[in-house]
Amino acid sequence: MTVSLKQSRTFSFRDGTLKDEAERLVVWWYGPIFKNNRLRSVPKIHIFLRTIDHENNLGGVMRRETVLTHLGLLRIGSVWEKGVSSSRIAYEERKFSVSFSPGGWRIVTLDDLRQSGRSLYTTFHDSNYLPQKNQHKTYLIEFDLPDGKHLLIPCTEFFIRVYGRSSEIKRVLATYSWEEVKKRLYRPLDAPVSPGTWPVKFTYHVHRHDAILLAHMLYDPYAKRAAKYIYSQFETSSTPDEMLLKATPWFQGSGEISVSGVPIDGGNTFLGLQILGCTQPDGATIHREREKSTTVPATDGDDAPTQFPYHQLQDIPDVIDLTDDEEPDHGSSWLDLPEDEFVILGKPRAVLDKRYTRKNVPDTRGVPVPGDETIFSTGEPHGSGKGVGQASIHAPITLESQGFLRDMWNALLYLQSAYPATIRGVSWFTFEDGFSTSPDPRLISLEPFEIDEEVKTTVANWVYVDTQTKVPRGVLVIRVHVLDQTLYLMEIQRRPPKPRAGGSEEASKPPSYKGLVFTLSHQGSFEQWLRQVLSNVRHVEGVVQKLVRHCPGFADTFKHPKSKKEQIPCEASVLNAFSKVSIGRSDLA
């Protein structure tokens, strides 16, 4: 049996699972979880690998042990040779609409599938994905799909990818009782909870993007039950040395989930082997605060600058030696390791960071100093002198883009949900519809030049988003009521990049355009001014800065910066537009 591979991010690490293997291996399946008798703060898990030669022919199955926290790196389908992975199986990628509420899914076993006459055969490699043996026992979540078909996902994969972004969350939930979970993940709030908000303060051991799961575990009984159920399975299991994990959705409602995997059962079921992304749950605005630990006692009260918790390694070594047999030393270096990105599908949840006002206190944190550890562990610090540092593994998030103009609209809706007291209204405009709050914005089409108008060919062609089909460009016009002002934003539709031979995008992308933000001295002049702008913008080929001096009020242009701190695409662009009329993020809070 032969499979196709694709290149992936090169990653090197040598935990006990792979460092002594001479053969080329591919991670094939996750098995039972069991207690770790040496590194007690991290459960272990059986994983199944297959040999794969350099012609990509699959061979026999072998069983190995690793720790639960390493699964974010040992993804199903990843190919490993001598501790290095730079390729993975090219599974089919699909996105599904599902219900995460009870009734939209169920927990099943492989035996359940076989007994109901459903086949694990897949045309992907012309064989059953798993052999007809009991050694691959596991639980799976089966989602019902709108077309009557089904989506299957191994519970372990669902737990690893959907229960927060950091491996620390999974480690703690699978290792400790609920009271211990709260001690290790949460810190007391500094103020009472305001109505309509979910404030959450958590330890520096977890990642900032864990805030949504942590808030739901704190305020949503449904999420709390799902989280507590993880450890309770260890307590009640009749075979604690080989426990089959059940992980259920921790939030309710409809949404989307993106996976890669293989079709089975004649195409009636899709077996999702890797979760690529998922919808975030709706709910109250989350106010996020991450504890900033200090290695020395604070002496200046609440305004004292905080220290880094440990010596942080800034440069990830080429080969990372992760151990599953030793716990990290107290006070050791820590290494932040990214695993595969996780795509947020649809509208992101509104999450606001607590901001600190320092009263003229100098920042004395300094630069993190690297330590001399060469071995790292994802366990809980215990003892010292072993030369073992601490590894923090997390999945960075990436935001799903729905096209530039739609991203601008969605960013404004997101900010309105985050700051409803100050952003009181967001609406789009066309001359046919007037102002509308419909979730799907419409564009105003630019008017093509008449044949007898004397304009340059480049100017005449600029009006079209597609010069072959003569489809005119669109313009998105948005009105925003923010604080005591009424703002208008205007964005021009971009042409898509032209494909070149081979199917990739050409090296030089189409020109980008600045956005236009304006206010009016008299709101009654809006349509007249807008018609003037829509006509003149054609002559200047979208260079809107040439139009601002004619505005009957105030007008300025703004760029579209990107920020790593964005909660949604184009959030930084909208805030940049607001800044042109002297509105900053601090004014919105």
Question: Which helices and strands, and how do they pair?
Answer:
Layout: E1 5-12, E2 25-34, E3 44-52, E4 58-67, E5 78-81, E6 84-89, E7 92-99, E8 105-109, H1 110-115, E9 121-122, E10 127-128, E11 139-144, E12 150-154, H2 155-162, H3 167-175, H4 178-185, E13 197-202, H5 211-219, H6 221-236, E14 254-264, E15 269-279, E16 285-290, E17 321-322, E18 334-338, E19 342-345, E20 351-353, E21 375-377, E22 388-394, E23 397-399, H7 404-418, E24 423-430, E25 434-436, E26 444-445, H8 457-462, E27 464-466, E28 471-472, E29 474-482, E30 485-492, E31 515-520, H9 526-539, E32 553-558, H10 571-579, H11 585-588
Parallel strand pairs: 12-15, 13-16, 15-19, 16-20, 17-21, 18-22, 19-23, 21-22
Antiparallel strand pairs: 1-6, 2-3, 2-5, 3-4, 5-6, 7-14, 8-11, 9-10, 11-12, 14-15, 24-25, 24-29, 26-29, 27-28, 29-30, 30-31, 31-32
Helix pairs in contact: 5-6
Helix content: 10-25%
How would you sum up the major sheet? 8 strands, mixed
Number of strands: 32
Number of helices, counting only DSSP H or I runs of 4 residues or more: 11
Number of domains: 3
What are the segments in which pLDDT stays under 50 over at least 5 consecutive residues? 294-310, 356-369, 503-508
- Structural class from helices and strands? alpha+beta
What separation lies between the terminal Cα atoms? 59 Å
Shape: globular
Strand content: 25-35%
Mean pLDDT: 85
